[in-house]
Amino acid sequence: MSRFAKNLLIIQAHPDDAEAWSAGTLSLLKDKGWTITIASLTAGNMGGVGMSEEETVATRVEEAKAAAAALGANFHCFMRRDAYLFDSEELRIEVVSLIRKVKAGVVITHAPFDYHQDHRTTCQVVDAAAIVSSLPNVPSPEPPLDITPLLYHGMPMSLSDPLGNPVPEPHFFVDISGKPMEKKMEMLTHHKTQQDLMRLMHKMDDFFGEMRIFNAELGAMVGCAEAECYWQHLGGGYQKDPLLQEELAPYIRHREENQK
Ligand SMILES: [Zn+2]
Fold first, then answer.
1. In the chain, helix, strand, coil percent, each to 5?
2. Domains and their CATH numbers in the chain
3. Exposed, middle or buried, 122 (CB in 10 Å: 0-12/13-18/19+)?
4. pLDDT digits (tens, 9 = 90+) for 64-96
């Protein structure tokens, strides 16, 4: 019996990030009986084309709620302004409160070497909040956790850092071929606004299709059809139990094994 509750909280910068980078893994954990909460620090304000910021916020929050509902997950938005996300004392305390409220055993956020500034800021806020979530002096209305949750980082687009260099080797890949990938596509299709945005921003005609191609590229690295990948935060202050790796053991892949 693990000393960590099977409550997973994924905190990302934008309303579609959890789906884009981790939905296959979330689907596998949901099927194993985990409680999943998806949170976004911003409401995706700048991610609208042909609609005002206010309309974009309302639409994107609804899209994210529908995507979370498709998984049977909870959704929470911290309602910060997309593209103007800053680390602050208030935001850290709000994040601590959510970590405590859902009694998170595992927290997933972006990687510290992610390509997007909002993603890196989110990583900084979530790391700073998670590491104090068991400390009684943090001024949160929620009672402290018994143990600091395990922290994991999801994949950045193209597995490259802000300068375009390759990121460190992922600690593990998760085989999401088949049903988890289909659930991921179902969740992604709720983010209809992002098809138009990605066409404008990244000249991507089919954002959802591109996500499947990216997952297939990762899968090819480890000998399966589609994959996601992760790093566990093993630095000082965090426990090192390989809980997700054990929970998902039949689906865990490593690149070296495939290269032998
Ligand atoms: Zn994002």
1. 45, 15, 40
2. 7-259 (3.40.50.10320)
3. buried
4. 999 999 999 999 999 999 999 999 999 999 999
- A 10 A CB-CB count for 158 gives 12
* Alpha-helical runs (H) found in the chain: 17-31, 53-71, 89-101, 117-130, 179-188, 193-201, 207-222, 243-247, 255-259
28 Cα–ligand 1 center, Å = 22
Contact 172, 154 (CB under 8 A): no
**What's the pTM value of the predicted model, to 2 decimals?**
0.96
Instruction: Calculate how far, in angstroms, residue 14's C-alpha sits from the geometric centre of ligand 1.
Output: 5
Sign of the CA dihedral with 31 first, then 146, 154, and 102 last: positive
Residue 143 Cα to ligand 1 middle (Å): 30
Evaluate whether 150 touches 126 at the Cβ level (below 8 Å). no
